[in-house]
Amino acid sequence: xxxxxxxxxxxxxxxxxxxxxxxxxxxxxxxxxxxxxxxxxxxxxxxxxxxxxxxxxxxxxxxxxxxxxxxxxxxxxxxxxxxxxxx
Length: 87
What we know:
The chain is of the alpha+beta class. The chain has one domain (1-84). It is built from 2 helices and 4 strands. It has helices at residues 2-15, 35-51, and strands at 25-30, 55-57, 68-74, 77-84. A 4-stranded mixed sheet has the order 2-1-4-3, with helices on one face. α2 (35-51) links the parallel β1 and β2. The termini are far apart.
């Protein structure tokens, strides 16, 4: 599942037309108690290092503008990703 999440983040960065060197942060939401949630908690740093994108667990605070967001079905579980860039 970690590789699947990493892949989705990389595709989201590409959809947002971000270069590899452009800073962005990804917010990840998965239902509490799911395998996806457990993987996000366990591999948060690994995913961040692999994608070059800091990973924050949870939703984007209302005061932060989202660059792009998407919902994915990963192995039957819902994963919501949102990319934000520094202003």
